[in-house]
Amino acid sequence: MTVKEGRCVHKGAFRALASALLAESGSWAGTGSHTLAGTSDEGSPVPERSQRGTYTRIADALRLRLTEEPDQSVLPSEAALMREYGVARTTVRRALRALAAQGLVEAVPGVGWRVRTGGDTPSPLVDRVRSLLVGEGFAVGDAFYSEAALCGRYDISRTTVRRALAQLEGEGLLEAVHGKGRIVKALPPEAGTP
Question: Given its phi and psi angles, is residue 24 left (phi above 0), alpha (psi -120 to 50 degrees) or beta?
Answer without folding.
Answer: alpha
